[in-house]
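Hi R.,

Here's the chain you asked about this morning:
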Amino acid sequence: MNKEKLNLPPQLGKILEYWRFIVALLFLAIIFSLSIFQISTEEVGVITRFGKYVRQVEPGLNLKIPFAEDVYKVPVERQQKLEFGFRTSRAGKNTQFASSSTKDESLMLTGDLNLAEVQWVVQYRVDDAYKNLFKVRNPQSTLRIISEAAMRQIVGDRTVNEVLTVGRTEIASELEVLIQEICREYSMGIKIEQVVLQDVNPPEPVKAAFNAVNEAQQEKETLINQAKSEYNKVIPKARGQAEETIQQAEGYAAERINNADGEAARFTALYNEFIKAPEVTKRRIYLETMSNVIPEIGNVVITDQKGSSVLPLLQMQMNKKTENNEN
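And the predicted structure, written out as C-alpha cells:
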C-alpha cells in the first residue's frame, strides 16, 4: 500500500524536481549574497568570527562566512573632526552656534583665576582599525573627553592674556601633542592631524573691558613699531654722518701732520746748509726775500744811510713799465 502511494504521476514528479531546483538556486543566491560584501576606497574591513577578530580586508569585493563572520567597516582614510564650544549648524555652511551644552565645554579657568571661552576643533584619522574597534569602548566619546581635559590643563597653566592673545599658537601645538600622547597610551588607534583654535573670547559680561585692553595693546604695538621705524631711519643716518665727519677729521689731521713733517724736514735741511755757510745762506735768503717783496711794493726810492743822496729811479721805473706795455 505505501509503495503504491509513493508512486506519483510522471508530470507531478517533474514539477517537484523543478521546484526543488528553484529552491536550491534561491538558497545558493541567499548564501552568496550574505557572503559577499564591498569595502569602499576610504575604508578597511575588520572581520570577526563569533565575536573574535580574525582578519582585516582591503577595499573592494570580499567574502565572508555567512552567519558566522561579521564585518566592521572603519573609515581609515577619512579625516574626521570634533568641535568644542560650538557646532556647525548645517553641512556645507559656515554658520556656527553655541548652545548651553557647548558653553560648558568652552568656559575655562585660566592660571590667574580668570575665565575664558575657548572654541577649538580636533581633526583626526583612524590609523589602526583593530585598536579603534576593540581596545577602547566608544573611541569618539573618549577622544572628546580627552581633548576637553587636555585643553583645560593647558589653559589652566597660562594667564588670561596669554590665552586671548600671544599664546594661541603655542596652546594649539601643546594640545595636539598632549592628545596624541594620551591616545597612544590608551591604544585608541587614532592619529591627531591638527588642532585649530577657532575663537578665544572673554566671558560676555567682561568682553567690552577685554576688548578695550586689546585695543590699547594693539595701539601700543603700533607706536612701538613706528618708533622703531623712525629709529632705523635716523640712527643709521646719524652714524653715517658721524663716521664721515671722523674720516674727514682724520684726513685733515693726516694732511696737517704731513705738511708739518715736510716743513720741519725742509727747515732742518736749510739749517744744515746754514751751518755750513751762514753768510752765504743769509745773503741768499735775503735776496730771495727781497725779490719776492720788492715787486709788490710799487714805487721804490733808495737812499744811502744818511739820506743825503737820492737816486732818481722813479723816472727809470716809469720808462721800464712803458716799455713792458709796448712789448
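DSSP finds ten helices and eleven strands in the chain.

Let me know if you need anything else.
M.
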